[in-house]
Amino acid sequence: MSLRIGGMGWVTPLGSGVSEVWQRLLDGAVAQAETISSPLGKRSFPIFRVPADATSRAPAHPRLRRSSAISRFAAVAGLAALEDAQVKLDAHAAERTAIVFAISNGGVVYTKRFYHEVVESGAQTASPLLFPETVFNAPASHLAAILGITGASYTLVGDGAVGLLAMKMAEDLLQNPTLDRCLVVGAEEADWLLCDAYHRWRLLRAAPPIECFQPHPRGMILSEGAGAVLIEPKARASARRSEDPPPARTIQIESIDAGGNFTRQSDAAACMTKIFGRLGPGDDDLIIASANGTFIDQAERSAALHCGGDALLYAPKAVLGESVGTSSIWQVICGAQALMTGRLPLTLYTSHGISTRPSARDYNVPFRRAIVSACGMNQQAAGLSLVIRD
Fold first, then answer.
1. Considering its fold, how many domains does the chain have in total?
2. Can you give the residue range of the structural domain that contains 302?
3. What is the tens place of the pLDDT at every residue in 248-264?
4. What is the DSSP letter of 123?
5. Residues lower than pLDDT 50 in the chain
6. What is the 3-state secondary structure (H, E, C) of 225-268?
7. Based on the domain organization, do 18 and 147 belong to the same domain?
8. Does 107 lie in the same domain as 62?
9. pTM
């Protein structure tokens, strides 16, 4: 089945709005870290938060009045993707729309608060109003309610590759002729509790910047936000817009590789090499890497060197941070924007690990394809290729 990206939306530490954030990336902007501290000790952690104005367009919906930040992020990104696709969900359209939500850590702030009340005051005093926010599918439930979708709504829990696995699930769902589109959303919120966990796993660094593809990994910095991609079968999308002028160029999903799992960090490179081998990146392709300053960097570089010749690599997590469940959706948006605009942010890498900083006149470099590489920290890996069509 031929699939296309109909619309996109994201909420990031650099703000919201696909065109606006992409321009900030092109201009060399870097997310600014703030420090959060654990109330249980003296340790502090850097974190990339979403600015308040990035969710100013959240709808005034009862579902969002008491919801956690992760649900607001998801609502803003999801609605932006639908608006970008010029899709209005009336009752009929809502019946023919599915949601697949990708998540890793979930609404940790509410989970922590619920647990704290149980520990401090006993189970009888913990508010039942908080409980729905402590489960992984709460954001998907809120978004489905806001959009009026009562049918197909799924939540996938995984690591940094879960966004691509959600897109693969969307591809499978759209085999059903009763569905016209699938909204794939990834969202995460950040908290000191997560920072403490990743620090104990020796994956977190003490302060910015995030340095990708270094000989000795120095760690990542967590971030929060959301990303949304509306996926449509190309034939059905064309039929829906038969009365409108056809879009000049569209981003087509050429292939989604569900990848697999690796049991040890040392096996990550072999797993990624198999995925790259199936996707077949070449010298004239761009690889949107999931490098984040950890062991993932060398696994991806090794796979790219083995299969991709001297392809260029771009690592958006060096600027936006590691948002785990959201991150591979962000990578897809970056790949689509690079193909649509023919422009790239300043800091790039080659398969040989050499950092390059092209000048402004070097921005306009056409690419045949964009390969999205997703290697997670919990032994999941996946890949995806995008092409631009007239």
1. 2
2. 250-389
3. 579 999 999 999 999 99
4. G
5. 242, 359-362
6. EEEEEEEEEHHHHHHHCCCCCCCCCEEEEEEEEEEEECCCHHHH
7. yes
8. yes
9. 0.92
